[in-house]
Amino acid sequence: MIRKYIVVKGVVQGVGFRPFVYKIAVNNNLKGWVNNNSKGVYIDLEGKEDNIEEFMYRLQHEAPPLSKINEVYVEERPVKNYTDFEIRYSSEEGEPLALIPPDISICNQCLEEIKDPLNRRYRYPFTNCTNCGPRFSIIKKLPYDRPVTTMNDFKMCSRCEDEYKNPLDRRFHAEPNGCPNCGPRLFLLDNLGNEIKCKDEIKEAISMIKKGKILAVKGIGGFNLVCDGNNAKAINILRNRKRRPRKPLAVMMKDLNVVKKYCLVNEIEEKVLTSNKRPILILDKVEKCELPGELAPNNDTIGVMLPYTPLHYLLFEEHMEVLVMTSANISGQPMIYENNEAILKLNKIVDYFLINNRDIHIPVDDSVCRVILGEERVIRAARGYTPISIDLNKGKKVVAYGSQLKNTFAIANEERVFISQYIGDMDNLETLDSFEKSLSHFKNLYKIEQEVIAYDMHPDYWCNDFVRNENIEKVSVQHHHAHVVSCMVENKIEDKVIGVALDGTGYGEDGRIWGSEFLVCDYKDFKRVGHLNYFHIPGGESSIKEPWKILIGLLYKIYNKDMHKFLPKSIDIKKVRILEAMILGKINSPLCSSMGRLFDGVAVLLGFNECVSFEGEAAIYLQSICEKREEGFYHYTIDYIDNKYLINTDEIIIGIIEDLRSDINKGNIAKKFHNTVINIIIKVCSKIRGDYGINKVALSGGVFNNEIILKGAYKGLASKNFNVYIHKKIPCNDSGISLGQLIIGRERLKGGLENVHSGTS
Ligand code: ZN
Ligand code: ZN
Ligand code: FE
Fold first, then answer.
1. What is the pTM of this model?
2. Cα 687 to averaged position of ligand 3 atoms, centre (Å)
3. Residue 752 has pLDDT above 80, yes or no
4. pLDDT computed for residue 755 by the predictor
């Protein structure tokens, strides 16, 4: 007989790990105990060597689906002669290092139960077990236990309590456990918040949706706005009430068969759609797709997810196929997640509310992904994905405040960084509140008192007041350096790389707006070695919403006063004169080197004549009109000035105008422009490799959400024998930069890294 003492670290709490250990220990006739504390799971085992070996094998190969083992530590100890095997209760000492599992879609076993008329949870919309259900969104404190979740408001009935206490039950220590007798329940309300008494809230809600009504439905991490996805009239009403003219609306579809009816789905996409994270996946529509165009105007893709809560499954009863399922918020503000707030803020947008009395402690949006180059790439990391954590070498406790738009923050204790869920655009008080609340939640959960703040160097960013008021060490970080470093960290690259950061806006060290940056950099420092030539953007910030102003800046640079001849007819000549005067007088016409703005200007040349109603709209238009087979590109020159490669945009614009005058198809022109950008990336990287002997390239920044650019640059660089690194779990857009900021902040004060893991997988 021997005794082994085992410590298991990773995602091992709230995922049925102890009952699993109990089962395989008892099966192997082993004695001892298993315990959970904030550092992980501890196991003390006694028995025959063969049996312990078998135990160790099963521990690592049959662990519960939501768990993730990062480390197993084993030590031989003197035999104690235990008489049985027991599960001991959580002890609270020590720093809470165990990882919180994310919110997970309903499992198959629970799904069977809600479909079974003989089961006591038949059609119960809050069914869950240790393998599924809410986690991150209901946890107030660690270690994870029912009293520190929002389920503490519900006292379990005796049958639920029996399940909860039985180590062999699927619901052993399933903290959100409940049933129709003791758990949360649904309420249907009118738009004034009055309860509508009815026999079956779900059936009633479906019949309202079928009549074209709009509902706010409380899900796992917040409220969604819901209407019939096949009813164009209802979608238009929703768009009008929400003042959201064109931004694509995500939909939820009944099952994979319905998805395949409307969208092209490959094997990898199928896997992502049906994974227990259940993100919104951006898919190409089938040719002659019968979905209403109103869901995603001028767009050949659509964001689709499958049901992920029991309630969602039940909403697809009665032959419902497609539901609009978009975050419920007031334009630009964070998602609404509290009942009272929902009634207060949404009563003019929705006709009815389908709410419940289980509180959400921390709001979590739906996540968004796209499969590109054969792999899932996260665009927005939230439900199912967060919290994301990465192991680091020992270093300072840093908080990184993230970006202005698409904000997330990152916070590190001495040896691990945690990245927050998607917070949103920081230009209103509500999002700032949400940021503060989430940050203090993370500090509490992981018991971190920060020593250093890392933040974006932009002098007008939202965080300046926050930063000023903190009396600790501060590191200001350049936006594009942060982009590239976040890509490096994700790919575990620690030596120097060529960083290519292409995006809309980031404050540069020279006080100008950067956005097409070729950097030679490591975690600590960067050198700017190439970028697009500067051009004026008359009207400054306002040009982001009114991209025709950017075109004026681009044309002015080439033609000066003669530019009038080259303007699209849609542009009002009187307004052009004003902008011209602004550029000449140097009034609110900052210089920028932004690739995103170049896309905007070209989109206007090619017929985008609207105001931008959501970020990236003009660029998405340009991408969507591309004639995929076109392989030509525009000529351009690269100057070498002050040790930097400056890409001259003039000939590109001139080439496009010439093509337009020769009546070349706009789709071909758009694709030629994309090809040109890819060509620039490859050429400039090759020049930098020649100068610095660096072969590793990291691609980051929101422009790489553009599939044509990402694929083209990746393949083109790889064919020139570069080692190319791109984003996967960390978004390439601004929601990814908090990680980069944090690592730069830490590195400037010393650090390093080991291991990346995101929730479960
Ligand atoms: Zn389950
Ligand atoms: Zn019960
Ligand atoms: Fe950016």
1. 0.92
2. 24
3. no
4. 41
Pick the range with the lowest mean pLDDT from 302-306, 390-394, 714-718, 741-745.
390-394
Ligand 3: distance of its center to the CA of 501 in Å? 8
Output the six-digit token pair for 74: 């084993």
Tokens of residue 760, six digits: 């479960």
pLDDT digits 0-9 by tens, 425-439: 998 999 999 999 999
Q: What is the pLDDT of residue 757?
A: 44
Tell how far the Cα of 447 is from the centroid of ligand 3, in angstroms: 30
Instruction: List the end-to-end C-alpha distance of the chain, in Å, as a whole number.
Output: 37
Tokens of 12: 């091992």
Residue 753: is its pLDDT beyond 50? no
Lowest mean pLDDT among 476-480, 565-569, 600-604: 565-569
Distance, CA of 77 to CA of 450 (rounded, Å): 38
Q: Is 627 helix (H, G, I), strand (E, B) or coil?
A: coil
Residue type, 608: F
For the chain, give the percent of residues with pLDDT over 70.
97
Question: Distance, CA 740 to ligand 3 centroid (Å)?
Answer: 11
Range in 66-80, 81-95, 508-522 with the lowest mean pLDDT = 81-95
Q: How far is the CA of 87 from the centre of ligand 1 (A)?
A: 22
Residue 173 CA to ligand 2 centre (angstroms): 14
- List, as own/partner pairs, every contact residues 713-718 make where C-beta atoms lie below 8 angstroms and the sequence separation is at least 24, other chains included: 713/500, 713/678, 713/681, 713/682, 714/373, 716/678, 716/679, 716/681, 716/682, 717/681, 717/682, 717/685
**Residues comprising the chain, all counted:** 761
String of b and e for 702-723 (b: at least 16 CB within 10 Å)?
A: bbbbbbbbbebbbebbeeeebe
Nearest ligand, measured from the Cα of 120: 2
Strand 497-507 to 696-700 pairing: parallel
254-283 per-position pLDDT tens digit = 999 999 999 999 999 999 999 999 999 999
Which helix (H) or strand (E) element contains residue 389? strand 388-392
Query: How far is the centre of ligand 1, averaged over its atoms, from the C-alpha of 732 (Å)?
Result: 33
For ligand 3, the distance from its centroid to the CA atom of residue 483, given in whole angstroms, is 7
Beta partners for residue 353, in sequence order: 189, 216
Measure the CA–CA gap between 136 and 98, rounded to whole angstroms: 13
Q: Single out the residue of 500, 510, 332, 479 nearest to residue 402, CA to CA.
A: 479
Near ion ligand 1, which residues have CB within 5 Å?
A: 107, 110, 129, 131-132
Whole-number Å distance between alpha carbons of 138 and 517: 41
639 near 526, Cβ under 8 Å? Answer: no
Distance 142 CA to ligand 1 centre (A): 22
DSSP string, 538-602: TTTTHHHH-THHHHHHHHHHHHGGGGGGGS-TTS-HHHHHHHHHHHHTTSS--EEEEHHHHHHHH
User: 458 by DSSP, 3-state: which?
Assistant: coil
Query: In which band, very low, low, confident or very high, does the pLDDT at 751 lie, cut at 50, 70 and 90?
Result: very low
Ligand nearest to the CA of 124: 2
With vertex at residue 435, the alpha carbon angle to CA 429 and CA 440, rounded to the nearest 5 degrees, is: 130
Residue % of the chain over a pLDDT of 90: 83
pLDDT band at 173 (very low <50, low <70, confident <90, very high): confident
